Amino acid sequence: MNTPTAISLDAYIRSVAACLAPGGSKQFIGRQNLLPLFRLAVPDLIQVNNDYFTKDEAIVRLTYLLNFEGLAAELDWRTKDGQLEELIVDDTHRQKLAAMTAYSDAANQRDTVLNTYVRSLAAGFALTDHGQFIGRKKLIPLCSKFLPDYVTFEESGFSLSRVEIVTQLTFLLDNGLAAELDWRARDWELEELIKYPSHRQYSIAAQEATTAGIPLRNSAIETYAKSLAAAFALGVNGQFIGRRKLVPLCDKFLPDRVNLENGYSCSKGEILSSLTTMLNCGAGGLAADLDARAKDGRLDDLIKYPSHRQKLEVAKKLAVEEAIRRQTVDKNSSVASERTPTPSVALSNTTASSTTPSEPTKEGTPTSSVALSNTTAPSPTPSEPNKSCLDTALPFDIQHAILPTLQCFLEEGCHAYLSKHHPQVLLAKGWSMPESAELNLYAQEIQPLLPAATGPRFKSLSVIRHTAVHRIPVSSTRLLELIDDAAHACGYLATSGAYSSVCGNPQQAVMAEKVLTLKEEVLKWMEKRAEDGQKQEKMKQKITSLMDTKRNIEMEIARLTALMEDKRYIEMEIAGLEAQIANNGEEERKAIRNFKVDVKRALLSDVPDLVDQKELRTGVLQQSLRKPQEDEWEGW
Hints:
Strand order of the largest sheet: 1-2
Helix content: 55-70%
Region (Disordered): 327-388
Mean pLDDT: 74
Low-confidence stretches: 1-5, 338-390, 497-505, 606-636
Number of domains: 5
Shape: elongated
Order of helices and strands: HHEEHHHHEEHHHEEHHHHHHHHHHHHHH
Radius of gyration: 48 Å
Strand content: under 5%
Largest sheet: 2 strands, antiparallel
C-alpha cells in the first residue's frame, strides 16, 4: 500500500476515517458505525513512514481519537460543511471519499423521491366518503392494492418496489404521518401533499362524496348531542340541571372519538361545540326544550343511543328516591309538631324573667306577658364549633342552599304571625301567601307592630334577604350569626301576643326548631370540613416529603450515571494505554532479537567490535540469520 512518507499514524487514521464518515443526508455515520467499517477498510499490517502497525493498534488509536481527542465531533461538522477532503492524505482515500459522497447524494435523492411518493399516495387515499381520515389500518391495505410491483420515475431514473413503498408508508404513519393526515382531512388540506395525477383523481372523487355527505354528518352530530344532553339533563330534584352544569358533565362522559349513525364519526370537540351552540339559542333553544321535557317527563323522546338511555334511567331512579326521602322528612316533621304541645325555642344570650300584666295596644291586641327583648323559655343550644372550624369558609353552593332556606322559613313565620295577630295588614297589602312579599317587606310591617322587633337581631332579617338574593359570599362565622338571628326572630314571633294562642298555632316555634336544626347541620358540616382540611394538610406534607425523596433519588441516579460514564471512558483509556504498552513491548522484543543476531554474527565472524551497527544490520545478514535455532544458543 502506497502512502506518503511524511505523515504520522494519526494522520493516516484521520484520512481513512474521513473517507468512511459520510452518511445519508450529509450526516456523520457515527462512531459506532465507523469502527466496523474501519476494521474492514484497513489491511492487517499498515506501513507508515517505514514503520509497521497492526490493525488492532490502529483501531485502538482510532477509538482513543474519537473519544478523547474530539475526532467524532470534527468528523460531524466537516461532514455537514463538506470539508472532509482537508483530512485526506492519500489519493486512494480521496477516491473513496468521492465515491462515498456520490453514493450518499444518490441515496438522499432516492429517499426524497420515496418519501414524496409515499406521502402523495397516502394523501390520495386518506379521505373517506364521510370526510374523515380513513385510519392507518385501512390505508395500508388500500395503498397496497393500488400499487404495481414496481414504480419507475422517468425524471430521476429510480425504480421502487411495492414492498419498499409499503414499508416506508408504515414507518411514516407510525412517526407522525397519521396525525398529519387526520388534521389535513378535517381542514381540507390534503391537496398540498398530492404530487401525482393518479393520486389526485382518487382524492377528488373522495372530496366530491364528502361534500355531498356534510349535511348528513352535521345532522348526525346534532342528534348525538341532543341525545347526550337528554341523558344528563335530569337532576336529583327532578328538574333540569342547567346548561352550566350540563356541558362539563357531557365533557367528562365523552371519549376522544365518537362513532355516529350511518358510519360517521367525529371528535369530542365537535360534539361539545354543537351542544353549546344549541344550548345558547335563547327561549327556542335546546336548554328551554330540556327544561320543559324534564318537567313533563318527555326526555326519552330525544334519546337515540343505548348508553344514553341507561344514564337517563339511573337519573330517574335517583330523582324518585330523593322525592320519597323528602316526603318522608316532611311527614316526620309534621307528626313531631303535632305531638309537641309547647315547643321550646332556643335563643342564645337570654334568661328567664318575671311576667307583667298585659296591656292593650293601639290596635286592641294584647301584648305578651313575657318581656320579649330579654326573656324566653330556656332550651339547650347546639355545641359551639372550635375556632379553626369557624375560620373555615363553606363552599358557596352550601351557603346558597342555606340562606334561601332561612329566607323561606322567616317569610312563612312572618306571614303566619300577621295572619294570626294582624290580618288587616295582609288584606291591605294583598299578601295571600308567604311568597307574596319578600322578607324585608315583612320586617318593615312587623317592626311598628312588635316593639321587640326593633332590636339588631330582628333587623338582620333584611341582611339575610339581601345576602340570599344577591349571592354575597360570607364567612362561616357570619353565617352562624345570621342563623342565630333567624332563630331569635322566630322566637320573637313565637312569643308575641297571648302565649296560649301560640300554643294553639305553633308554626313559628316549629320554624325556630327548623332553624336550630339547620344550624346543627351546618356546625356538623364545618367540623367535618375542618377534619378533612387537616387530613388534606397531612397528605400534602406527605406528598412534599415523597417528592423530596424522589428528587434525591433522581439526583443520586444522575450522579451514578455520570460515574458509570466516567468508568466507561477510563476503561477505554486503559485499553488504549495497554495497547501502547503492548506495542512498546513488541519493539523491545524486536530490539532484543536484533541484538541476538548481532551477537551471533560477531561470534561466527570473530568480529570483536559489536558496536559496528552499519555492518551488522545489512539486509544480507538479517536474511541469513532471521530464524536462529534455539538449541544453538543453549550451550552458549
